[in-house]
Amino acid sequence: MSAVLSIDRNAPQPLKLNPNPQQKYWFDPTPPRTSVQAERRHRQERLAGAFRLFARFGFAQGLAGHITARDPELTDHFWVNPLGIHFSRIKVSDLLLVNAKGETVIGDRPLNKAAFAIHAAIHEHNPKIVAAAHTHSTYGKAWSTLGRKLDTITQDSCVFHEDVALFDDFTGMVGDRKGAILKNHGILTAGPTVEAAAWWYIALDNACHTQLLAEAAGKPQPIDEATARHTHSQIGGPEGAIHSFDSLYEGLVEAEPELLL
Questions:
Q1: The pTM of the whole model exceeds 0.85
Q2: Dihedral-angle region of residue 199 (phi above 0 means left; psi in -120 to 50 means alpha; beta otherwise)
Q3: What is the pLDDT of residues 102-159, one digit of tens each?
Q4: Distance between CA 232 and CA 244 in Å, rounded?
Q5: Distance CA 193, CA 13 (A)
Q6: Which letter does DSSP use for residue 153 in this model?
Q7: Of 211, 209, 187, which is closest to residue 200 (Cα–Cα)?
Q8: What is the DSSP string of 42-72?
Q9: What's the rounded Cα separation, in Å, for the pair 111 and 98?
Q10: Which residues contact 192 (CB under 8 A, 6 or more apart)?
Q11: pLDDT tens per residue, range 228-255
């Protein structure tokens, strides 16, 4: 008879230390995509994912709301959600491609007229902007009624220090800033990637929520100017926004793989 070894899986195992330990406080650089087609597909997949993440955050409100992504080849065209499909159901194949005249060149569902009016102006004004996001989220909408900018009261809100504009009469341009508060309307963000624009929207709505709560409880104490500027220089770039978005996107795709269809 052959002997059967009994393995005690609860027995402590020796640690296997890295023989060449290193300090690694950030991610390795993302390799560039190898073709226009690969970049287009990347933007489409992240755009479809952004809509579904927005639905999870409660940003879907009736027919309102849109996120756009500039096409990497036809740079005066952008991809956008069709009117009437709930954010939680959008797939890559649902996305519309729209030209600078507001004509749909790919897709047959209706286009939200407001999506074209707002986003066409943003994309035309600043060629560095790849994506822009606007919805009627509850906290962004509530803050917009106050007609003033956010204060820098938390470390997270330092991302937006001196980086969010206030518009009384929105014309569709955010300049070089990552966001805008549209008075009595809501909030908008824009960035050099779909991931950055989408994450900054989530973060800006959270900043609105935080300040509304803080002011309801008392008088928030702002972060001093020097600290706010320094913190913004450390966490205000798009790299952190991209990885923050990706941390949500990976689980989303695993749970809802049909979004890639």
A1: yes
A2: alpha
A3: 999 999 999 999 889 989 999 998 999 999 999 999 999 999 999 999 999 999 999 9
A4: 16
A5: 44
A6: -
A7: 187
A8: HHHHHHHHHHHHHHHTT--BTTB-EEEEE-S
A9: 9
A10: 128, 129, 130, 131, 238
A11: 999 999 999 999 999 999 999 999 999 9
